[in-house]
Amino acid sequence: MRNRGWFPVGLVAALTVVLCFLTLPIVAIFVDTGPLDLLSSLGEDGALEALRLSLTCSAIAVGLIVLAGTPAAYLLATRRFRGRAALVTLVELPLVLPPAVAGIGLLAALGPNGVLGGVVEDAGIELVLTTAGVILALTFVAAPFYLRQAQSAFEALDRTWLEASRTLGATEARTFLRVAIPTAGPGLISGLALAWGRALGEFGATLMFAGSFRGVTQTAPLAIYERFSTDFTGALALSAVLVAVSAALLLSVKLLSGSAWLGGAAG
Amino acid sequence: MLGMLLCAALPMGAGCGGDGGGDGAPPGGPGSSKPKLTVSAAASLKQAFTAYGKEFASARFSFAGSDELAAQISQGVKPDVFAAANTKLPEELFKKGLVEKPTVFAGNRLVLAVPADDAKVGSLADVERPGVTLAVGSKSVPVGSYTRTVLDKLPAAQSKAILANVRSEEPDVAGIVGKLSQGAVDAGFVYVSDVRGSDGKLKAAELPEALQPSVAYGVAVVKGAKQPRQAQAFIDGLLSGAGRRALENAGFEPPPSE
In angstroms, what separates the C-alpha of B29 from chain A's closest C-alpha? Predict the structure, then answer.
């Protein structure tokens, strides 16, 4: 009985270390900026613009990811076929790519001198150094976060439910829309939150592929980087806002998934 | 550059490694046998300093926009040497008591660079045409501020037309060179040494002499440097010696005052 004591203490100690390490930089951002600094820095030109651009681009990126990613993840989760494991790995690869590699890769693929650069140009699409390029970069880096989560949410579904729905005469499409998606809802939503958070924080791939221009491609992280050299307080304040926005997003998504799908399969 | 991002993410100015093997903070800790000289240097100095660094077996570099490096030093990061693409940033740090008296060690020239193989732009006059795309340095990085000095000397309408063609404001000169060599923009304002170092990917259109800003590089030993003697030796070598030769080979000019 006696040595039951030290293990829980060790666990608590480990959690304390982890918490301190992870929260210290975030706490420091808020300690260093008073609420007044925060508000006044938002009034400076460019700050709100960068924030708005970040929110718009990341929302569009997440929309695209959910639209294409949900059926793709469903297929990967419900079918067994040769090469599936390789496919899953390929899809998850951008998850471990450094953002700089993602940026270089996008340039090599879709840049003016890239593999498909000519095709893109002939189609009259401008990606490099445009807002569309920002959305593309965000989509690329954030998609695997959603796909991975969605796939495991679909895999966790009780097969008998899906089969029951089919036995009752529903088509597979209807089963997907009316049974699989609602039941896997919490998992899908937590994937969405992760992907959105990743997209909001994206820096390297955006800078390399889309560049940095106020109001067009300069998202909040790029604006923070630009301010760092001239206006540390301003950079801190904008960081604080970005932290608050990301936290609010994460929280509301969690609340939403908790209430809307109460009683559904756990995510 | 991504190492810089990490630095930006750590608000207390904690040191962190640059991706070029450089390090913003004093290296070492127990067990590092030979103390290393750490040098924070302007991105445009990368090739010259890397070549010179071979003489200094123990030198480690962190290359980024001079303004970002100066901001790190203001936040308490202590490399041994700070070399900037202007004299303003080291002078400012000197006034704040963060570095020793700076020395001017090199000059450079601002040029209009275009991709060598597919040049839509031949001279400054072409850059104001609608549809031409341009990358410049952000206002705070020296290359961006020199660029604005040049544009300010032009008639207002011309400088406005040129600024309207800017598609990206890069945090350092390496970003401009990258956008140019990828063909993402038609032209960019960089240093002549960047064109020299581009392996023929870029070619330079010279700016009229009347527009040319005075580009002077300043270097200083950082106060509280771990290796002050090595740092001074590094700077001495830049003024006469291996460093000077490396700078000349890379296309730098003597300091403008000479």
Answer: 21
3-state secondary structure chain B: CHHHHHHHHCCCCCCCECCCCCECCCCCCCCCCCCCEEEEEEHHHHHHHHHHHCCCCCEEEEEECHHHHHHHHHCCCCCCEEEECCCHHHHHHHHCCCECCCEEEEEECEEEEEECCCCCCCCHHHHCCCCCCEEEECCCCHHHHHHHHHHHHCCHHHHHHHHHCEEEEECCHHHHHHHHHCCCCCEEEEEHHHHHCCCCCEEEEECCCCCCCCEEEEEEEECCCCCHHHHHHHHHHHHCCHHHHHHHHCCCECCCCC
> For residue range A162-212, what is the model confidence (pLDDT) as tens digits?
888 888 888 888 889 888 999 898 899 989 999 999 999 999 999 999 989
Distance of CA A212 to the CA centre of its chain: 20
Query: What letter represents residue B220's amino acid?
Result: A
**Residue B19 region, left (φ>0) first, then alpha (ψ -120 to 50), else beta?**
alpha
- How far is the alpha carbon of B56 from chain A, nearest alpha carbon, in Å? 29
Residue B29: count other Cβ atoms within 10 Å of its Cβ: 6
- Side-chain-facing half-sphere of B32: CA atoms under 13 Å: 9
Q: What would the pLDDT profile of A15-48 be if each residue is shown by its tens digit?
A: 999 999 999 998 888 887 777 777 777 777 778 8
The residue of chain A with its CA nearest to that of B137 is A212
Which bin fits A137, alpha (ψ -120 to 50), beta or left (φ > 0)? alpha
Q: What pLDDT, in 10s, does the model give residues B69-103? A: 999 999 888 999 999 999 999 999 999 999 999 99
Count H helices and E strands in chain A, helices first. 14, 0
Query: Helix H segments across A96-231?
Result: 99-110, 117-122, 131-155, 159-167, 172-175, 181-183, 185-201, 204-210, 220-230
Could you give the CA distance from residue B249 to residue B15 in angstroms, rounded to a whole number?
32
* Residue A236 to residue A228: CA distance in whole angstroms: 8
For CA atoms A66, A68, A69, A75, give the dihedral sign: positive
The ipTM, to two decimals, is 0.72
The mean of the pLDDT values for chain B is 85
Let me know if A205 is exposed, middle or buried by CB neighbors in 10 A (0-12, 13-18, 19+).
buried
A:B CB pairs within 8 Å? 92
Q: Is B70 on the interface with A (CB under 8 A)?
A: yes
Closest CA to B140 of B192, B82, B41, B68: B68
Answer whether B162's CB lies under 8 Å from B154's CB: yes
Chain A interface test: which of B86, B133, B138 (most A C-beta within 10 Å)? B138
User: Can you read off the two tokens belonging to residue A27?
Assistant: 């706490």
User: CB neighbours of A222 closer than 8 A, spacing ≥ 6?
Assistant: A50, A203, A206, A207, A212
pTM as predicted: 0.80
In this model, does residue A261 exceed pLDDT 50? no
